[in-house]
Structures are given as C-alpha cells and as structure tokens.
Known about the structure:
The structure holds two protein chains of two kinds.
Chain A: E1 22-32, E2 41-49, E3 52-57, E4 78-80, E5 84-91, E6 94-97, E7 108-113, E8 118-122, H1 128-143, H2 152-159, H3 176-185, E9 192-195, E10 211-214, H4 219-224, E11 232-236, E12 242-247, H5 255-273, E13 280-284, H6 285-288, H7 292-304, H8 311-316, H9 321-328, H10 330-349, E14 354-359, H11 365-377, H12 384-396, H13 402-405, H14 419-433, H15 442-451, H16 465-470, H17 498-501, H18 515-532, H19 552-558, E15 566-568, H20 574-585, H21 608-612, H22 625-651, H23 690-716
Helix pairs in contact in A: 7-9, 10-11, 11-12, 11-14, 14-15
Chain B: H1 5-10, H2 35-40, E1 45-52, E2 59-65, E3 69-74, E4 80-85, E5 89-98, E6 119-127, E7 132-138, H3 140-154, E8 188-190, E9 195-198, H4 211-220, E10 227-231, H5 235-240, E11 257-261, H6 267-282, H7 289-296, H8 298-317, E12 322-326, H9 333-345, H10 352-364, H11 370-373, H12 390-404, H13 413-424, H14 436-441, H15 444-447, H16 451-455, H17 458-462, H18 489-492, H19 500-524
Parallel strand pairs in B: 9-12, 10-11, 10-12
Antiparallel strand pairs in B: 1-2, 1-7, 2-3, 3-4, 5-6, 6-7, 8-9
Amino acid sequence: xxxxxxxxxxxxxxxxxxxxxxxxxxxxxxxxxxxxxxxxxxxxxxxxxxxxxxxxxxxxxxxxxxxxxxxxxxxxxxxxxxxxxxxxxxxxxxxxxxxxxxxxxxxxxxxxxxxxxxxxxxxxxxxxxxxxxxxxxxxxxxxxxxxxxxxxxxxxxxxxxxxxxxxxxxxxxxxxxxxxxxxxxxxxxxxxxxxxxxxxxxxxxxxxxxxxxxxxxxxxxxxxxxxxxxxxxxxxxxxxxxxxxxxxxxxxxxxxxxxxxxxxxxxxxxxxxxxxxxxxxxxxxxxxxxxxxxxxxxxxxxxxxxxxxxxxxxxxxxxxxxxxxxxxxxxxxxxxxxxxxxxxxxxxxxxxxxxxxxxxxxxxxxxxxxxxxxxxxxxxxxxxxxxxxxxxxxxxxxxxxxxxxxxxxxxxxxxxxxxxxxxxxxxxxxxxxxxxxxxxxxxxxxxxxxxxxxxxxxxxxxxxxxxxxxxxxxxxxxxxxxxxxxxxxxxxxxxxxxxxxxxxxxxxxxxxxxxxxxxxxxxxxxxxxxxxxxxxxxxxxxxxxxxxxxxxxxxxxxxxxxxxxxxxxxxxxxxxxxxxxxxxxxxxxxxxxxxxxxxxxxxxxxxxxxxxxxxxxxxxxxxxxxxxxxxxxxxxxxxxxxxxxxxxxxxxxxxxxxxxxxxxxxxxxxxxxxxxxxxxxxxxxxxxxxxxxxxxxxxxxxxxxxxxxxxxxxxxx
Amino acid sequence: xxxxxxxxxxxxxxxxxxxxxxxxxxxxxxxxxxxxxxxxxxxxxxxxxxxxxxxxxxxxxxxxxxxxxxxxxxxxxxxxxxxxxxxxxxxxxxxxxxxxxxxxxxxxxxxxxxxxxxxxxxxxxxxxxxxxxxxxxxxxxxxxxxxxxxxxxxxxxxxxxxxxxxxxxxxxxxxxxxxxxxxxxxxxxxxxxxxxxxxxxxxxxxxxxxxxxxxxxxxxxxxxxxxxxxxxxxxxxxxxxxxxxxxxxxxxxxxxxxxxxxxxxxxxxxxxxxxxxxxxxxxxxxxxxxxxxxxxxxxxxxxxxxxxxxxxxxxxxxxxxxxxxxxxxxxxxxxxxxxxxxxxxxxxxxxxxxxxxxxxxxxxxxxxxxxxxxxxxxxxxxxxxxxxxxxxxxxxxxxxxxxxxxxxxxxxxxxxxxxxxxxxxxxxxxxxxxxxxxxxxxxxxxxxxxxxxxxxxxxxxxxxxxxxxxxxxxxxxxxxxxxxxxxxxxxxxxxxxxxxxxxxxxxxxxxxxxxxxxxxxxxxxxxxxxxxxxxxxxxxxxx
Lengths: 717, 543
C-alpha cells in the first residue's frame, strides 16, 4: 500500500544549534504527508536532540525551492521539545497515548504539536533497536518532568557566541528608569511612584524588582503582606484615571487573620480613595471572568477541532462545525474577556474612575485585561515596539508564570492554562477588525504564539523576574562563562531574515501623522473623539483633567469634599456600557485613539491563520488574505521605488542602498496558507474533499441499484 | 436602486419640497400618479413624521407617498432623507398608540405638534434589501392610511405598472444595454465545449424511455467518450419525479453517461433558511450566534452549491469529460451550478463585462423566474410558495469566491449588493418577468431601461470595480470546507453594522492603487489615472 521508493542510503546530518546535542536517532523512518490520508510520504531519519525532534528527509538536498518565509531556528520538520503536545503510538490500528515507560513499541508514531501541526511517522521499516531508542527518547525528553536547568535555554546561552542586543526599542522594564519613563509617557507621575522596595526581592519573589504604586502607599504597607493587598499601577489614561492591579489575599481559615487582612485592605482603600484621589472601582476578575480551569478546558476542546490526523476525520466534523465550535466555549471566553476590557475602558475613559483589577496572584487574567485595555486605549501599544514593551511590562516582568502555564517542565498539568494565547487571540480580533490601527500583522501574532515554545529565548521560559535573575548566574554549568546572556524573543532577526520579517509589518498601518506637519489636524481629531463620547451626567465633571496643572483650582474646589468612595463591579449600570459601546461605534474610527472591538456574535472569529494553517483543505491556491497582503506589499514597493527614482531626479544623488526585494511577484500562485504552507510540495489541485470522490463511487453503486430496481419492476410486469 | 439614483439625478428639481403637488417631484411619467395609483394612495403627505433607522440618528420631517416612491424630507432643513422605492417594501407592520388624555411628550417638535389628536402610530417597514425603517406618524388615521397605501402599492402585481416602465433616467437611451442573442431550446452550450444544462428528461413512470433524448445525449459524446450527468436532486426526488412525467436517465439507456446526484435545496427550505438567517442577524447581542447561524443552514446551502459547482468543474477540467447539469425544470439550482462552474473555470467570466454576460446568459435568458422567486424577501412569512432566494445564494457564492480570491474578480462586493437590490426591486427592467417570452409580451426591452446600460456608464462603472483586480488565467478552486465559508456580512449585516472602517481600508487600497497607477502613468504614459469615487456612495442613500 506504500509507494515504495528505494530508501537512499545517504548520510544526512541534523543542523545543530550551539549547545545542541544529538541524543538518539533512527533511520528509514517513513513520514506521511498529512494532506490526503493516502500513504504518500518520504523516507528519512528521525532524530531527537536536547532541543528538538527533527525529521531529516533523505531527499532534502533536492529541495532547491527555499520557502520565502522560513524560521531560521525551527524548520518545517522540526518540533522543539516544548512544542510537543501529545504523542500517540499506533499498535494494530489502535491509538494509544505514550507518556512514560514503554513496554511495547508502536509501529506508527503520531506527534501532535502545540502549534497544531500533526506528524505521522511509520516505524515499520526501522530497525527494532532504533525504534526502541527513538521512541523512548522522544517520549522521555518531551513528556516527562524536567529540571529548569535542563532546559535548552541554558545550554544554548552558555554555548552561543555573545549575543547581540536586539531588543529594537522594546522597553524591557528591568530598570527603575524604564518604569519612570513609562510613568512620564502616560503622565502618571503626578500620583504614582516607582519604588525600589523590592530590591533584593525583599518584598516578594513574585513581584518584579521595580514596580509602581500610588504615592500615598508606604513602604511598610508594601512589605507587610509580601505585596499582597497593594494596588500596583499598570497604566494611566489621558484623563489621569489609572488602571491598577492587586494580588488578593488567599481565603483564610483563621478568622483573626482574615479580620486583620480586611482591616489592612480597608486602610489601603481609604488611603488611595482619599482626596485628591478619586473613585476607585474594584473588579475581582476571579469572579467576573471564567476561571483558568474553564479557559484550559475550552482551549483543549477548541484545539482538538484543528488537530487533524487525516482528511477523512476533517470532513467528518464538517456538518456540525458551528455547533462543535460553539460547544468548545473558546470564542465565548474571548468575547467575555473583550467585553470586560470594554467595561474597564468605559470606567477609565467616561467615568474617569480608577479601576483596580483583583486576582489571587494578579499575574493571569489581570495581565490579559490590563494588556487588552492598553491595546484598546493607548495607540502606542499598537505599534510593534509598544506592543512588545507592553508584553514585557505586564507579562514578562509582571510575573506571569509562563513556565507553569505552558507546562514547559511537565511538572503539573493542573497549572497549565493558555492565558497568554488568550490575550493573543483577543488582540487578533482587534487586528482583524481594525487592520490599519496596528503596525503589526496577524502573522506577527502567529509567530509570536509559536515562539512560546522555542527555548532559546528567555522571554517565555521563566515564571518571574526573580526566577530568571537567580538562574542567570550560571555557576552550576560553566562558572568561567559568567552570567548567562539570554536572547529575547523581540530580536526577530534570530528567527527570521529581513525578507521574512517584512511579513510581520502591516503595510496598511495608518501611521500617526507627524506632529510638525499636520499638527492642527491631529489636534482636531483628538477633540472630535472626546466630544463624541457621551458624558455621564451622574459623575461630577469637575474631575476631568484632574491631574493637569491647569485644573489646580478644581482640585482646591473639591478638596475637603469627601468623594472618595469605591464601587464594586456589581454596582455598575449595564446601560452605560451599552451606551458607550454603541455611541463609540456610531462615530468614525480614529486609528490613533480609543479602539473598541465589536463583540456581537458574528464579529468574534476563529483565528484562521493560526488554527487552519496546516490543514491543506483550507488552502486556496492563489487566494486568501495573503494574496491581498502580497499585492499590497508589491504596490508599496513599487511606490517606494518610484519615490526613490523621483528623489534621485530631484537631488541628483544616487542612493544605491535602497533596493526593492521582488517579494511575491507571483502572488496569483501563492497559497492562502502562505507563509506557512509548503508550496513546493503540492501540485495545484482542486480543493474538493476526497469524500466527494468517495461518494462518487457510492453514487456509481446507487446508479446500478437504481437500474436493478427498474429491471425488477419490469419483471414483475 | 431606485432609492439611489433619483435623488442624485433629480435632486435640484425638488424645490417645492413640502408641497403635496406630487407631479412636480420628478419630471417623468413615473410620479404622475395615474388613476390606478391615486386610488391606492389614501394619504399622500403627512408632516412631522419621525424616521428612525438602526445605527443612525432619528430624523423628523414630511412624509410623502407617490405612485412608486416613499419620500421623507427633513424639516426644517428640507434635506431629502429617504427616497425609497415602494416595491422594495417587503412587509409593513403597524402599531397604533392611543394616548388618550395624556399630553403629547415634550420633545423638540412638540410645539409644531398641532395634530394633538392624542394618538399616533408606528409603521415598521421591512425592506427586501433587508433594511428596516421605522416611521412614527402622528394621528392614528394617517398612520393606518399610510400603511395601507404602502401595502397596496408594494403589492401591485401587474408588470407593466411597475416603476421600470415609467423610469426615464437622463443620459440613457431606451434600447441601450439590451443584448439580443439567439437561444437554443432544450440545451444551451456554454463556456467551454463541454458544460451543458437542461431540464429533466420527460421519461415518466413505468420505465418509459425517451428515444429522442437518448439520441440527443448520444450525439454529444463521441465513440468511447464518457460524460457526467449532475442531477441537482436527490436520487429519491429524481425517482419520484417520474410519477409526474419527469425522471432521470437510467444507466441502461444512457450507457456513456454516469449520473451523479447532488441534492441542492430549492424552494421553501431555501426561503426558510434565508428567513432564519436574517432573523438571527437581527437579534440584539446575538447570543448563541454560532448555533443560530448553523441552524439557519444558509452556509450549508452556500457550501453545497459551491461544492457541486466544483464537482462539475472538476469533471470538466480534471476528467476532461462532458458534463450535463440538470434538476427538474433547469431554471433554478441548475443555473446556480453552471454559472458558478463557469466562474471557477473561465477567467473571462470574471471580468465585469464577462460577469454581466454570464448573468444575462445563465440566469436571465436561461429563464430563472425572477419575478416569482424574488417577489418577497426575508420578511414574508409563509406567503407565497414560489419565493426562493436562489439568485441571492448565487451572489453569496460569488462573494465567497471574491473573498477567497481577492483579486481574481474584476468586480467588487458593491456590484453583488447592487444586483441583489435590483433583483428584488428595481428601476430597471433587467430582472422583470420570469422568462424571455414574458419579457417579449410585456415589451420589457422596448419600454424599460437596462440595468447594464446604467452600470456601464463610465462613472457608474468605477464604483463596481475591484481595485485589486489582476487577470488570473488559472482555475480558482475555492475551499469549500466549513471553516472557509463565511457569513456575507456586507449583505446580511449591511444595515445593522456599519462597515465604515472596512470601507476606509478599501478607500486606502484604492488610494494606493490610484497613486500607483498615476505614478506609472507618468513613467509609461499608458494607464489611465482615475479619481475613484467613494465606493459606498449610492447604497448609503436612505441611511
């Protein structure tokens, strides 16, 4: 049943990164092509290193057709150990999950990846010894608990040449300066201060070295409960209202302890809601949003819809697609999260009320909501560097437990939850609804989500800044090399060459007009946007522009009046939210102003690029959004070339540097799965389901039956 | 359509705006309200009517009903806010509020509210193009009169009484745009040599045979050649058709043909699917949206139509076989399949001219009964048996193709929307009647203007072009998996969700293309630089 092609005895060696070690290998492994459920495929060698599982095609040398969009670190047949989701063995046509020690070795190996690729390997032609070694090697290295220091990150960092600093304007939030700059940028410095209390991690190992709190919070309070119960600043809105987050106290059995904690909290609230501070709205995300467990369950169900073994399974889900999709609840969770972010934005923008997000650790849903609110309200977060700085601020330094949430070390499945993916999914909704508002593309988000599983960057491989700092010293491995120099994922040149990086930038991004040229225009725009928002009469308008110097007299006016009071999220009137939402959507969009996602049913979509990219049935030859993108890139390039020509004619100076890369001249032949499809392998074929042809055979039978039936009736006559 | 063009063309002539003297509205015979119409109009003008539309501020003004249009000009400014072809009204819902002794509400217009009869009424107009208008009319009697006038005028049955017979746009000649081309009777050869369509063979019950038909089909194929018959009915339905004189081609009598059944819904199931989808879209907040979308089954119909067209295309292109498509009459799903297959295979059908030709050939001349199928739209619960949105389904499939292949079609979404609007209510004669015979009896070609003539005027034409178009000589195989089939939001949510940011993105693309074209014009001197008009101009009328 297999197209036997003589396996070529040829030495193919894996390309290893610095610090990468070959652990085991097996030859004459047959890799099935996923697309058609037929048995077509190629022979090659399957290897496992301390970084990846890799299939080396025996014919790979003949591949002169280099893909245009290529990851330099992880090739199309590479699976990093952290990217492996589940491994199944096939024994006599039965699938069995492989986790630990194996007694029997399977004849087929199916590897499901976290980036939703599915690999099918046939081991029937491989020597038994090699099968044993490779299967147990792969299962052991990718599925069993691991020590942090055994992550490839460390071997790479110690072996790789001194890394370049490629953070490209991304603010890392590792220094006090970074926080002060951010305060200044958002004009939050009147009321908030960056503190050094946590130097040496005196307060907590979960908190970053530096963070920002309201000016009135004392050092003692911060130290009292390891930073719990302390509002930590995330961002300040243009009107001075701030977004804060707070780690809550765990539920205490002991009454007196909880009494003390309550008193402490009341004290804090009183302090920060005393004039000149204004209303504070509390939002306990653990009760107002789905739990991490819900999110994990929904995602598990959702991704299952896209992990396709073969085409037949894929078409089997066909009829019930929408109800299957709905029953996963994943899109509903996205919708609820977006809605929550709109609620918070309404408080900040319209009610001028500070919002305090509360969660037990303040490092999961707090990160999602605070990031989303900033993406929606701060156009800086919609630039590439701004978005990256935001991820640094809220997630990496903010202390999101990437290691545990991604279960990189296979320590506990209970901790696993795709919180960061949830954010990317939500941001994607905004990107597809308002493409010109973002400097980056959906491809950027997709490769960012893939980077979660590439352990050469430190970005997503620690639970906290403390954990990273304490493991940085490198004493246990190579004392002489000094502290490790980890790469950051923001150095995109590590993964992509400049040509491929072009796909991360949005050619249609409506860049902010330069202030010198069109100052008047921008000013008017801002004005318009503010006027367009409904004012809530219930709130004293005197609070507008509270922190601006020009409103000093207003402060005097209301000082002494007790306006400090905090509201719970349950107090809010749902109508004001709807009004805010409707009113915003009835106005023209300012791509550099507030951006609210549409959250009505049809607007929440499946992130097709991330989830469907490996499914050939979803492929269009010469179509899809990539065709548009490619066309626009071409156009921009042409415009640029012409611009250069014109400039040359004007200045008579020849600038030889500006060159145009002919990117996708043949966009009509591109696959819609580009940049992720393996175009060179596929013939242009009709995208009809194979089931059609299967049916066709059935039809043939039916036609015959039909005739028999007729004949029979004739006999009876 | 009518709700679009007259204000632009006749705008300056609207001077005596608030005068009830109807004939001065428009210089054509159209509004001259012949006797037949004036009997139907019980109240011609009402002042102080409040018009509200979703997503738009409410407008107060004077409502006027003419023989074919409903107009509302705002007071005091006198801008014309609404120009609606009454034919476009699908359903009229009225609600009367008897306010009794209550004071009229103290709104801005309360001073002018002289008609303090203590009652008012609300009329909700559900239009065939899916927009919903609400008119708040002071005075119960006026409200009921207006409602019944609209109902009566919108259900005038006689073709010759319809607006296209009165509409005389300036700048167009009557004969313009009406193609005359001979038609074959039973079969029509289309596109390539090998795609054919027909109605069912009239074999009837008791295994009767139709020798002539066998011979006819036999002559199509050469010795040893095989062909495919794609029957758009289920095997069961085809078998049942024998009882009423129809039937299928039994394999024994048509040895060279291989019959495939691809059941496509038509008629009532399709109409109901359309109604359910429109209802789901109108739902506020759209909870359980995906479930409702699925249970409307509209996207399944789109998928089924596209995959059957792919099957036909695949038999032609990949198997190199001749293909005959038929259902029962050969004027509904058959046309859906053949027209789509041509669009997939033949690049010449994907230009604006080519597409018009395709519509003319595969839908209009092929005898799709537009008048029966498009008599009512999605608000017509359980009215006729003949209504079915087959043409809309076709347009939706074309939209799916245009979305999947964003620059392989020369025309854009705007054209598809315009075609949908015109199929249901039009100022032009193109979609009138059910077949060529009726059209000739009614002298449609002599007495009405062709939609194509209007569309093909240079300025108008620009609005329908796809700025990204570049000729694609290849077959465009669409993806028909459910993940690739999307809801046509531009149509189904057109009046619910403003698409302003999308329009802006398109405007930006146009600007880019335009900039590029004009700069290459400088270098090549070949291409024409055009100033692109606002792509949304026109349809936004009435908003």
